[in-house]
Amino acid sequence: MTLVEESPPDTLEVRTRLAATATFRRRRENVVGYLFMSPWIAGFLLLTAGPMIASLYFAFTDYNLFNTPSWIGLGNFTALFDDPRWRKSVEVTATYVVIGTPLKLLLALGVALLLAQSRRAQGFYRAAFYAPSLIGASVSVGFVWRAIFSDEAIVDRTQLLFGMDVGGWVGDPDWVLYSLVALTVWQFGAPMVIFLAGLKQVPRELYEAAEVDGAGPLRRFWSVTLPMISPVLFFNVLLETIHSFQVFGSAYVVSNTSCGPADASLVYTCYLYQKGFKEAQMGFASAMAWMLLLAVALVTAVLFWSQKRWVHYEEAPR
Description:
Layout: H1 11-58, E1 61-62, E2 70-71, H2 75-82, H3 84-115, H4 122-135, H5 139-148, H6 154-161, H7 176-186, H8 189-200, H9 204-212, H10 217-228, H11 230-245, H12 249-254, H13 268-278, H14 282-310
Antiparallel strand pairs: 1-2
Helix pairs in contact: 1-14, 2-14, 3-7, 3-8, 3-11, 3-13, 4-8, 8-11, 11-14, 13-14
């Protein structure tokens, strides 16, 4: 009986077919992935990238929303520095950022340190302190805040009990900005939660070792707590600083849409809104927007540069 040997399969042809099948599957998966991403991509192009490119062009033009933009080069940027109200808006915004951001973070850290300790009704206190941040800078909060700090309201009457006759904060150029600072400090819940998460990650052994060495509460806070939560602190400083530069809703509503009195609450975005949509100077407003972007980018770069000196990251295991 003669045995007939079967011819071995063409391994090259099989590999080619398998490679073609794998390529087809990868392409199909990519198409499906892009289909799921298409709403975000469309939104980014139409609502973010497109308007940014358009505003960059408008920043170098004379454009009032009704006529065709005409190219004027750096005319809008030159006009910015010659505008006293623009300089006032920069001053007000810088004051708001320098005062409001540190106070908000200090209060958030202090409350987080208290809530990090085990106590009864801890969940209730966390929710209560976080609740104002859920509201955000809404119009309703602005109306309530304006009512609280207006003349003969609760804050004014409380001051009279201590012999302080300041009057309504929202109507006083010397005090209206501090009412906005009080509003942002009151909404400290978001950074508080982040601080609380960072405090939970600090090893208890470090505190015990510090106690053995005779370190008191302040020393333990300065030498153990702050270095260990410095990445969280940096994140909160960066995030809250950027948010402070973008303040608009609270200033616009509390000041009764005028950002006053006497431009005392004229934050940068409020003046940008007035120039762009009330005075229809969209070219000037676009230049303002890009100056704000550059300022925020510069501050962010400085913060990232400074973190090398005070932020301590845990080294990865070797």
